[in-house]
Fold Argininosuccinate synthase.
Amino acid sequence: MTAKNDRVVLAYSGGLDTSVAIGWIGEQTGREVVAVAVDVGQGGEDLEVIRQRALDCGAVEAYVADARDEFASEYCMPALKANALYEGKYPLVSALSRPVIAKHLVRAAREFGAHTVAHGCTGKGNDQVRFEVSITSMAPDMDCISPIRDLSLTRDVSIAYAEKHNLPIETTKHNPFSIDQNVWGRAIETGFLEDLWNAPTKDVYVYTDDPTYPPLPDEVVITFDKGIPVKIDGRPVTPLEAIQEMNRRAGAQGIGRIDMVEDRLVGIKSREIYEAPGAIALIEAHQALESVTLERMQRRYKRGVEQIWGELVYEAQWYSPLKKSLDAFIEDTQKFVSGDIRMVLHGGRATVNGRKSDASLYDFNLATYDSGDSFDQSSSRGFIDIYGLQSKLAAARDVRLGESSGY
Ligand code: ARG
């Protein structure tokens, strides 16, 4: 399928491994490398510097795709609508970014006439699966290669290669952690965190301040339209701006720190620290608005769908048929998820204390215990007789057959 003169498109981060990978791919395959860096709001180094580094390391073409708005609107917002938390905790930070990066890699491959896409993941994680399954789900004609995994390269080998070839990359400064970050959050693993008994130290955190010594409480009103935050304190915001502002404000209060052991797709349990202040605060607000705007059974059923949606996204199925079907269900549920949520951000928690919606199903006159009550309480008696009928018949049978638990 692949001609010898085919180029290889590499997902380039600017770090040691992917910089070295440019040369390795050239040596192993005899093909030219096009480096693509995708901006998903990871911050840090200037992306123009990263682009130039790719060229200096031997890439024939290098470019940076600004995918920040696209990532926020088309990847983080669906996760918000799904209240997506893998294993009840992890807001899918890295799992959400891989499909959008893969999309830009496929686009670049088409543009530069490549049929092979490369990434710098190891063979032990979820991300290799997410890149490759995403790529072949969008472009079944493409091949994937992974030099770090397939050549079993270690960090020492990378450093030696970079020094031998004089690559313009820092090889001495070794961060003890493996970090992946974007606008939805930050994931930190390895180093002393691999001992499950070791508590994270202060230097692990960047997006959040210590919640033990918080500043004064910060009250915020988030306005949603069909499940998406559209205003903060009355000011219109894009999805990207909403996440950024909540990262700043909830981060200052130490909200969204997560320390967990999770189950990877490849069967390994791993310890991860996450910080996702904006994501956690927005999910809390979104859930609160759903509690007043979703009908009971729809809401209950959605919880099951949310769990499966999160598992699918975690497990590399972003572009799968089932994920698309669940998206359609979730989208339908968001039709009336519009209104205002007021919350107080303080000391590590985002606490909802007010809700308002034109589409609310909360009926004051039905709920009130004061005057104005419009609920006909006499109807409840007959309702309970019928509702409890099956259990009552079963209990009577148990007594008759001597099987009663004897209450
Ligand atoms: N375990 C998380 C996931 O699979 C995060 C992995 C990100 N990588 C990292 N170097 N921390 O989504």
The chain has two domains: 7-169, 187-294+336-356. Residues 7-169 form a domain with the Rossmann fold fold (CATH 3.40.50.620). The pocket of arginine is lined by residues 94-95, 126, 178-180, 187-189, 272 (CB under 6 Å). The longest strand covers residues 218-225.
